[in-house]
Each structure stands twice: as C-alpha cells, then as structure tokens.
Amino acid sequence: MPLHGENSVSSRLSILTFNWHEPYICLLAKTNHHFDVAEPLVRTLPRRWNEAVRPKPQNVRIVSVDEAQSALANKKYDLVLCHNPQDIKAVARFGVPVILLFHNKLATELAIGGNSVKRNKYLADIKPLLERADVLVFVSESKRADWGFDDGVVIKHGVDPNDFYSYSGSECKILRVGNLIRERNMMLGADIQTEIARGFEISVIGNNQSIKNSKPAQSFENLKSLYGSHRVYLNVTLAPYEDGYNLSMLEAMATGAPVVSYGHPNTPIEDGVSGFCSFDVELLRDKINELLQNETLALKTGERGKEMVLVEFSLSKFLEKWNGVFKKVAGRSINNKMEPA
C-alpha cells in the first residue's frame, strides 16, 4: 500500500531540517522522504527531540549539528529545510539548496523581543540569509503578507484524522493547549482566557509555569485522550500577532471536539455552525455553558467542525504542496551537480 506522498515524488529525498517543531516535522514525515533532524543549540544546550510531544517517525533520524554539517560537506542531502534565519547561518557555506519556512509573523517575532529592534533594521540584517534561500514557504497567507514578501509559497497546515481518537466529550471541562501562554499574552491571550474560563473547570496543557495547575501532556497518546474527553476546546489566538487558529485547535477539531474561539478576522470557524467565535466574552461564556450542559449540541457542533477542518486543512493538499516544493528544489540540486565547476 503506498504511503503518503509516495506518488508525488518518484524517489525518496534525503532532507536535513532542524528540531524546532516536533508536530510539524511529524506532518512533513508523512511525505515519506528521509529526514535528518539536527538538534540546534539553545543557549549552550541542544534542543532535544521531545518524545512526550510526538514519537519520532521511522523515517526521521536525530543528528547533532556537527554530524549534519559533516554530511552536508559530503553532499549527503538533497536539500535543507530551515525554520528560521539562524538555521540558514548553520548551512549557508554548503552548496545545498535551502527552503526557509516561516511559522510566525515578523511582527510577532519583534514583539516577543520587546520591539528592541526596528523592522527595517531586522530585515536588512537578515537579508543575506534570506537571499541564500531558494524558496520561501509560509504557513498562512497572513504571515507571508506580514513579512512583506511578494513571492513565496503558502502551505496551510494539514491534519490527519487518523492520528486522533474519537470524541466523547465525557468530561464537562474546557481544554486549552499551548506553551508559554502567559509569557506570550499578546498573541495567546492569557488574560482573555482567564475571563472566558472564569468559574468553569479548565485543563491548560503545556509548559506554563506561570499558570496554576498547568502541566504538559505526558505523551502524545495522553494529549489525544484529552482532545477526545474534554467537552469544549478553547482557542484564543490574537490579531495582529497570530492567525485565527493554530495547530492545536485544528487537532482538537480533527478529533471532533467543539471549539469556542475568541474573535479573529481570519478565523476558519463559521460562527454557530462549525464552532462558536466572537469578540464578546460573555457570549462565549454562554456558549461554553450551553455545550457543557448539552451533549448533543457538543457532538453536532464538533462533527461540523471536523468536516470543515478536513476540507480547509486537508492533509493530502498539505503533502501535495510540500512534495511540489521538495521536487522543485531537489531538481535544482540535481541540475547543479550536472553543471561543470
């Protein structure tokens, strides 16, 4: 039986990437190419693959940055997928084609840094690294627009419903998933979350030492169980720093959990149909209460949300677009090898 993406690219490519986002790398692994994942240094320590976040796929191998650079020197890779300009710096001197993937808006990156660097200066500083990339890829159109680039490929997230359990909603609780929610209040709305969830039971899952009783999921299996068992999923992603969704919300919807989301101009939710979305906190509280009290409403809303997310964030479209980019960039690698020095 063919694996995901097997028919889109005739042979398996050897791709180097960096360990910044385990869930996204696991989605990329469904293309069926081979991925070496280098563990980049954060301060002085390597960022290790976290098996509690996602188990490592069979076609993913963990390597050190030194091992990756040695393999690059020996032309072992067809291309490199970078997640930020610093990744490019680690591979720039090698002749391998580079894809640069943007997960965040530039406005968000600058705000997280306290806006200590002006936008124009930051762009000027990283321009040589951006020019080293063969293709720029953005996870949403709004993120491409925020960086101010006219070119680049937009590849929306994909979700695989087969990765998740069925929804039961057996626990009359709210679920929220995210890391550093309080520290990233301007994009993840910790204060708004507190207002919406006041008086309700809520499980906040992730690395959030500043939020009482929050804890990371014990494993991916545990996270899938939480998506399926909690009656309501709460999303708070704030404009202009974030899209009206994130991967955690899409995963909850792929499970069949009904979503209540704080308002956003580009939310994929059709209010009252595939979920509930409003800037009115009291209205959202009323909808949460309805869902907690009415299991039938929760099931129907969650099912319509699941139908929407599997169309709008189709795994097959995600893999088709990524394989198209991989094929294009790997083709440049082959052409370069054929050209005389």
From TrEMBL:
InterPro entries: Glyco_trans_4-like_N. CDD domains: GT4_PimA-like (cd03801). Residues 42-162 form the Glycosyltransferase subfamily 4-like N-terminal domain. It holds the Pfam family Glyco_trans_1_4. Gene3D superfamilies: Glycogen Phosphorylase B. This is Glycosyltransferase subfamily 4-like N-terminal domain-containing protein. It comes from hydrothermal vent metagenome. The lineage of its organism: unclassified sequences, metagenomes, ecological metagenomes.
